[in-house]
Amino acid sequence: MINLKINGKEHNLDVEADVPLVWVLRDYLGLNAVKFGCGIAVCGACTVHVDNKPVRSCVVPVGSLKDKQITTLEGVESDIAAKIKKAWLDLQVPQCGYCQPGQIMSVINLLETNPNPDDADIDDAMSGNLCRCGTYLKIREAIHVAAESIK
Amino acid sequence: MRDETSIIGKSLPLIDGYEKVTGRLKYAGDIPPLQRMHYAKVLRSPYAHAKVVHIDTSAAEALPGVSAVITHKDEITGKKKTCNSPWHDFSFNFRGPMISQEVCYVGDEVAVVSAIDEDVAKEAIKLIEVEYEELPAIFDMEESIKPGAPQVHPWGPNALDPSVFEWGDIEEGFKEADHIIENRITMGNQQHAPLDRNSCMAHWEGDKVSIWTSTQALFWIRDAVTEFFELSPNKVRVHSTPTGGSFGLWWGNNFMFLAVALARKAKRPVRLILTRDEVMTTVKRREKPLIDAKIGIKKDGTMVSQSYRHLMDNGAYGNKFDPYQSVADIYTTKHGRAEFIGVATNLLPAGCMRGVGDLTLAYAMEQTIDMAAEKIGMDPVEFRLKNHWQTGDICHTSQEVLFAKLLFNKTPEVELTSSGLAECISKGAEKIGWKDKWKGWGKPSSVDGHKIRGVGMGISTHISGLAFFGFNGITLKVNPDGTMVLTTGIGRMGQGGDTTQAMVAAEVMGVELEDINVVDGDTEVVGHTMVTFGSNGMHMVSRATKAAAEHAKEQLLEFAAKELEANPEDLDIKNRRIYVKGTEDVGIELKELMSKPIYEYLAAPEVIGSASKGVEFHKAGKMMMADFAEIEIDTRTAQMKVIKFVAYHDSGTVVNPAVCENQVAGGYYQSMGLCTTENLVFDDETGAILNPNFMDYKVVGPMDMPDPEIYFGEVYDEDGPFGAKGIGEGVTCAVPIAISSAVYNALGVRIDPPMTPEKILDALKSKGR
Ligand code: FES
Ligand code: FES
Q1: Is residue B546 part of a domain?
Q2: Is B10 contained in some domain?
Q3: How far does CA B449 lie from the centroid of its chain?
Q4: Model confidence at B253, in pLDDT bands (50, 70, 90)?
Q5: For A50-68, how does the pLDDT look when each residue is reduced to its tens digit (9 = 90+)?
C-alpha cells in the first residue's frame, strides 16, 4: 500500500513503489488531464506539480512521493490558474489540445513564482513542454496576457 | 463578390476550448474501459524480410489471464479468409495483410494477444515461439527498381506502374528553351510524431462491432473494417474521438483491425494502445522522395517546359503511385511532363503526411527554378512573379485528371478557381525586406565575423480537397429556444473544423456561434464525411454545412411567413430574429417562433435542415503559399538559425483568423523540423529504426525557432463557401525551399533537408571556410 496526497485528498493505493506516477494518476484515479507522451521526460505532456513544483510524472516513481502534495490540472483552483485558462481561451492557444494541460501546469508554476516574466524567463520555464501542433507563438502571447491580467 | 458577414472572419473561440484548457477532452486513450475489457499487445518482426515458417502459441494461450491469440493463420470472417489476406486501401496509404506470414519490415505484425492487463499480454508475447526463414531485404529505392532485385513483398512488383501526366509537347518544349536546367533532390524521413498515441477499443455485440478510436476519418475506418471483415456497414459502428495531433497518422492504417479481430475471438472488449516506439516505427512516415527535375527557360526568364520524375519510397506496404495531390502546377508552361513512381522497400510503410506530394515536388521544382533564375541572373522574386500560376489556368497534374482516366477513361480539364500568388509573393517580399537583403545568387545578405546571413524564398500550392473524396452529409436541427445542433463527420484533430463549420452554420442562420452545438464522431448518427484530409474541410465540407443551414433557414422562413403574414422571400434572419426586409421592426424572435404552437398543427414548428453535397471537379480551389526566410550560419559551430520568417498565404476568405494563424504557425514549426532535426534513421544492416523516441527524433521545441510572421492575402474564391479555400496541409509546403534557398545564398552550396550541422560543415569546408 502506498499513501499519496493528490489534489488535497489522501489515497491508499495497492501499487508497486516503482510504478511511474503518470499511470497511477490516469489508470487508478482517472485523472486524464495528465497525458502520456514520451515516457522519458522529454515532452512535458505528463507535467504535474509535486509540492508546487512542476515535475514529469512519467519518470517519478510513486514510492518517492511519501508526504508530498501532488496536484494535477484537475486539482488547481488558484486565481492565477483561472486567469491563465482565460488567456488560453481568449487567444485560442490550443490546437489538438493534447499538450495543453502540461503546458498550463508549467505556466501556473511560472506565474506563481514570477508574476512578471520576460521572454527569457518564459523560454526557461517552457523549454521542456513540446507541442507538435506548434502552438508556441500563441503560448508566448497568452503568457504575457495572463501575466498582465494577474497584476 | 465578398459577402457581408457577421461571424465569418472573426477569431471566435474554439467551441471545445474549455475542454482543452481543463484537460477534460477525451482522446481515445482516455475513454473509460468497458466492462470485462482486455488489453492487446503485438508481437512484431525483428527482420526486415522473412517468412514465418513455424509459430507455436500454445504456451501463450495457456498463460492465465490470456483471452485470445491471433496469428496469420487465423480466420477472420468465417469464410476461409485469414489474417494473411491482403487488404487494398482505396486511399493508397496501406495495402497488406493484417498479420503477414511473410513479414516485410522490422515491426511488421506476427501475432497479437489479448489479456487481462498489459503486463500479462506482454508476458504472453514472450511465450510465442516463432521460426523465421530470412529473405533478402532491400532498403534503397534505386536498388529496388533494378531488374532482378529481390521482391519486397509477396504480391506485385517493387515499382508500381507509373502515373504520368503530359501536356503540350515536352520534346518540342525543351527545343524552344534557351537554357535547360537539370537537378536531383531528396530528403530525409519525417514522421508525424504526434504527442498522443494511436489507440483503438473494439467490442462485438452479436454480429455487430463497435469501435472507439481517435481519428478524423470515421467513415473511412468504417468502410475499411466493413471491407476487410466482409460486413455490412450496418454491422460496424465507429465512434471517433479527437486526436492528439494527426498530421495524417490517424487514418489509412490497419492497426485497428487487430483490436476488432481480437475482440471477436476473445468474446470481450479489447483495447490496443500503441507504445511510443510503435507509433513511430509501425504506423507510417512521410514518403521519401527522389526527384529528377528538368526545366527549360527563355533568356528573358519565361518558363517554357518542365518535366519531373518523382520516385517515392513507399516502404513495405505503402501503395502510392502518385503523390496524391495536385502538383507541378505552380507554374504555367506550354509543355510539361510529370511521372510518379511508387517504389517498395523493406522499410516502415510510407503514406500521407501533412502537405504530402506538394511538399516534396514543390521543393524539387523550386530549387530547380532557383538554379534557372541564377543561370540568367534573375532575382527569384521577379522570376516567380513572371511565371507563377494564375486564376483560370489549367491543373495539368490534378488527381481529378488521374481518377477520371482510371474510372471513366476520360481526360478532362480542370481549371484553377483563384490564385493569390501575385499578392503573396510581392507583399511577402516587402515584409522580409527583400530589396535590402537580397544581394544576388549565392551571396550572403551580411557577414559579421563568423556569422553569415542569407535570405531565401519559395512558393507552393496545395489542394483544398478533391472531388472524389466524396459527398458530405450534414444536418442542422433547430431547438425550441432557437439554439441548434449541427451533425458533421468533420472530426477533431486540432484543425478547429468543428468550430469553423459551426461558424458557417451560424452565419447562414443569423445566430451566434455559442447557439450551435456540434455533434460528431459516430457513424450511426452523423452523415457521411469520408475523412478530413487534403485540407477539404472549409472548401468542400462547408458546402454541405452551408446548404444544410440554408435548408433549415428556408423552413424557418416559411413558418415565420405564416406568423408574420408575409412572403418567405421578403424575410431574413439576423441577431436571432426573423424580420421583414426593408421594415426591420416587423419580425419575430427565433425563440418565439420555435416555441409557439401553430394553429393548424396545435404544435410548435420542428425544423431540421439537411444536405448532401459533392463537388464537381472541373474547377479546383487551391491554397497558395509564399514563404520567405532569413537565416544565419555560425561558421564556428556550423549551426543554422532562423532570424526571420514570413509566411504570406492565400486561403481565400479567412474564416477564423486565430484558427488559420495556428495552422500556419504549426506548419512552419513542423516543416522546420523536417529541415533541421527530424529524420528517422534506418539501420543500414537491419532496416530497423534507430531513433523511435522524442530524445533521438527531435521535434521542434519552443526555443528552437523564432515565431513566424503570418499574413493572409485574402483573395475571394468564387467557388468556395464564403470565398474560402483550405489551409491545414499547404502551410508546410513552401518552408523547406525558403530555408534551403536562404542557406544557399549564405553559403553558396545547396543542401537538402535535413540540413544538419554535418552537412553545413561540409559545405563550409568545400568553400574553404
Ligand atoms: S510523457 Fe512525461 S515528459 Fe513526455
Ligand atoms: S496542441 Fe496539439 S500537441 Fe500541442
Answers
A1: yes
A2: no
A3: 43
A4: confident
A5: 999 999 999 999 999 999 9
Domain shared by B575 and B526, yes or no? yes
| Whether residue B484 is found in the same domain as residue B450 | no
- Judging contacts by C-beta atoms under 8 Å, the chain A residues touching residue B702 are 123, 126-127, 129-131, 136, 139-140
Kindly state whether residue B168 falls inside one of the protein's structural domains.
Answer: no
CATH number of B358's domain: 3.30.365.10
Residue A103 in contact with partner chain B when CB distance is under 8 A: no
Domains recognised in chain A with CATH numbers = 2-73 (3.10.20.30), 79-150 (1.10.150.120)
Determine the structural domain holding residue B303 and report its residue range.
285-466+618-766
- Chain B residues with CB-CB distance to A32 below 8 A: 23-24, 26, 30
- The ligand 2 atom nearest the CA atom of B245: 2
Cα separation of B500 and B128, whole Å?
Answer: 50
Cβ–Cβ contacts within 10 Å for residue B572, how many? 16
Q: Report pLDDT digits (tens) over A4-35.
A: 999 999 999 999 999 999 999 999 999 999 99
Q: How do beta strands B571-574 and B516-519 pair?
A: unpaired
Do A26 and B196 form a contact (C-beta atoms < 8 A)?
Answer: no
Query: Which of B193, B658, B703 minimises the CB distance to A132?
Result: B193
B708 touching A, CB under 8 A? yes
| Residue at which a domain ends, from B281, B315, B345 | B281
pLDDT at B684: 97
Distance CA B748, CA B371 (A): 12
Q: What sign does the dihedral B564-B569-B574-B579 (CA atoms) show?
A: negative
Quick check: ipTM above 0.95? yes
Q: Is the pLDDT of residue B326 over 70?
A: no
Is the same domain home to B552 and B631?
no
Sheet strands side by side (includes A47-50)? A9-13, A2-6, A69-71, A47-50, A53-56
Helix axes A136-150, A119-126, angle to 10 degrees: 120
Give the residue, out of A34, A38, A50, A103, with the most ligand 1 atoms within 8 A of its beta carbon, to mutate for a pocket test.
A38
Query: Which residues from A are below 8 Å from B20, CB to CB?
Result: 94, 97, 100
B251 and B113, same domain (yes or no): yes
Question: Distance (Å) from the C-alpha of residue B234 to the closest C-alpha of chain A?
Answer: 30
Other Cβ atoms closer than 10 A to A16: 9
Ligand with minimal distance to A136 CA? 2
- E strand segments, B529-621: 571-574, 577-580, 583-589, 607-613, 619-620
> Do B276 and B45 contact (CB within 8 A), yes or no?
no
Residues B391 and B491 both lie in one domain: no
Nearest CB among B29, B194, B669 relative to A134 is that of B669
Residue A94 Cβ contacting ligand 1 at under 6 Å: no
pLDDT tens-digit profile of B618-676? Answer: 999 999 999 999 999 999 999 999 999 999 999 999 999 999 999 999 999 999 999 99
A23, A42, A105, A130: which to mutate for ligand 1, most atoms within 8 A of CB? Answer: A42
The answer to whether the CB atoms of B662 and A126 lie below 8 A apart is no
Q: What atom in ligand 2 is closest to the CA of residue A97?
A: 1
**Residue B323: per-residue pLDDT:** 59
B396 in the same domain as B316:
yes
Q: What distance in Å separates the CA atoms of residue A3 and residue A17, rounded to the nearest whole number?
A: 10
CA distance B754 to B736: 9
A129 to B702: CB separation less than 8 angstroms, yes or no: yes
Question: Is there a domain that residue B47 lies in?
Answer: yes
Q: Do residue B310 and residue B433 come from a single domain?
A: yes
> What are the pLDDT digits (tens) for B269-314?
999 999 999 999 999 999 999 999 999 999 999 999 999 999 999 9
Would you call B500 an interface residue with chain A, using a CB distance cutoff of 8 Å?
no
Last residue of a domain, one of B221, B247, B281: B281
